[in-house]
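User: C-alpha cells for lysozyme, please.
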Amino acid sequence: MVSKAVLLLLVVLPFAYCRIYDKCTLARELLHQYKFPRWQIPTWICIVEHESHFNTAAINTQTHDHGLFQISQIYWCDPPNHPQGCHVSCDSLRDDDIHNDVQCVRKIFDEWQRIRGNGFKAWTTYDAFCGGNNEGYINGCGI
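Assistant: Done. Predicted C-alpha cells:
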C-alpha cells in the first residue's frame, strides 16, 4: 500500500503547482491584469496554444524551453548558476503564477521588436502557425 501512495505522489507532485489555462481566461488575464495591447492578444493565445497547450508546467526537453510561453533557457531564463536575459529561474516559469513569465515575455518581445521589427518572431510558432489573422483564437471570449 505504501508503494502505491509513493507512486501516486511522484506522479501528482510535479503538477501540484501548475495550471492549465483555457484560452479565454488567459486572454482576459493578459488584457486586463497584465495590460497587453488588445491587438496582441489573439497572437499570444495562438503562440501559447502551439507552444505549451496552455500548460504552465510545460517543458520542452529538446529545446530547453519552459512554461506557458516556452521561454528558452539558452537565452532568457536562468539555469542554475548561469544568469540569462530575464534573470529569472527556469523553474519559476513552470508554476501557476505567470507574473514573472509575463515580465520575461515583454522583455523578449521588446528586444526582438527592436532588432527584427516584430517581437512575435522570437517564437518559432509565430511563423509556422500565428503569422496571419488570429482573431479566431479568441472567438467567444468577449474581449
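User: Anything notable?

Assistant: Confidence is low (pLDDT under 50) at residues 5-15.
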